[in-house]
Amino acid sequence: MNKKRVITFLSLIVVTVCAIAGCSFLSPTVEQTSKPVASASAVPPVKQENVQLTVSAAASLKEALGEITPLYSKAKSNVAIRNNFGSSGDLQQQIINGAPVDVFISAAAKQMDELQKKDLIIADTRRDLLSNRLVLIVPADKSDTSDLKDLTKSNIERIAIGDPRSVPVGQYAEQALTKLELLQDVQSKFVLGNNVRQVLQFVESGNAQAGIVYATDAKTSTKVKVVQVIDAKLHKPIVYPIAILQKSTNQPSAKSYLEFLSSEPAKTIFEKYGFSTL
Questions:
Q1: How far apart (Å, rounded) are the C-alpha atoms in residues 31 and 14?
Q2: What is the structure's pLDDT at 49?
Q3: Which of 103, 180, 200, 257 sits a CA distance of 20 to 30 A from 58?
Q4: Is 88 marked within a binding site?
Q5: Annotated binding residue 60
Q6: Which domain holds residue 66?
Q7: Are residues 55 and 86 both part of a single domain?
Q8: Domain shared by 206 and 256, yes or no
Q9: Residue 253, annotated as binding a ligand
């Protein structure tokens, strides 16, 4: 057997043995690149950071925001809302004094204007969210008062209004009474509330024989009745401006919250409680 035939014979033996033993002729480089690549689904999702937003809002928004808040939290599970309700003037002072607030909703432009002058809000996030109406209420079982002029009668001794120094509903009430030239005649009868809900409680309890509140607040009680919807021309427009605070540490989430308050689900709830959406 010549040399060429020996080499051919040995090669056939090697091939035969490798076929039986399962040898691989792939290079190491090819083997490495042929390994399966992990699918995108195997990559763990990025965990969203939990955020808490503090919303300081006029007391008249308590029920509406109480229903909207869980709706928003369901849509944004990583964002918790802490609502802080009070008179707009008191909330304004809390913000001026450094309270950690992300979003402010006032029941009048005046308080928001003051914060804007002090550069405490992000001006381009400010907008008017809602409007409301002013109404005269009496206890549900009374029928001796039908309009603002009746407040001058001697049998009406106590009239509940918001403290005009800090409560927008009281400021609107004063404007209406001044326009009708009734303020001087009834001012001595005033029982001042720290917010609109306290005004409502004074009338509910009988501690006041009449009161001036927002239509939305009157709607929450079965213990009072509305005897007059006060002409909107007698006072400044009742608007609820909203804005994000400059010191908010959660501005992206705060902007998302503002957008949600203008969504159809939120508007439906506001209108359910008697607000007009803007």
A1: 22
A2: 83
A3: 180
A4: yes
A5: yes
A6: 51-131+239-277
A7: yes
A8: no
A9: no
